[in-house]
Design brief:
single chain
C-alpha cells in the first residue's frame, strides 16, 4: 500500500515537473515571438516612412521645373531656329472688288 502511494506521488510530481518544464518552454517561445513581432512592426514603420520619402522625391524629380533644370545642365536645350518667311509659300490675298 505504501508503495502504491509512493509511486502515485512520484508519478504526480514527475507529471507536474514535465508540465512546468513545458510551461517554461512555451513561455520562452512566446517571449521570443513577441520580440520578433515588435521588431517586424518597427521595420514596417521604418519602411513606410522611407516609402513616403521616396515617393516625395520621385514626384519632385518628375516636376517640370526640375526636368527643365536637368535638361539645361545636360545641354539638352532646344537650339534656336531662325524661321525665314520668304522661303515659305504664303497664301496670296485676292484683290477682287
Amino acid at each position: 500500500m505504501k508503495n502504491i502511494k509512493r509511486n502515485a506521488t512520484l508519478m504526480l510530481m514527475l507529471g507536474l515537473t514535465v508540465l512546468m518544464g513545458l510551461n517554461v518552454f512555451f513561455f520562452s517561445k512566446t517571449i521570443t515571438l513577441s520580440d520578433k513581432i515588435v521588431q517586424l512592426e518597427a521595420d514596417s514603420i521604418r519602411i513606410d516612412r522611407e516609402n513616403v520619402s521616396l515617393e516625395k522625391e520621385f514626384y519632385r524629380s518628375r516636376s517640370l521645373t526640375n526636368l527643365e533644370a536637368i535638361a539645361k545642365k545636360l545641354d539638352f536645350t532646344k537650339p534656336v531656329e531662325t524661321i525665314y518667311l520668304d522661303h515659305k509659300p504664303l497664301a496670296k490675298m485676292d484683290s477682287r472688288p
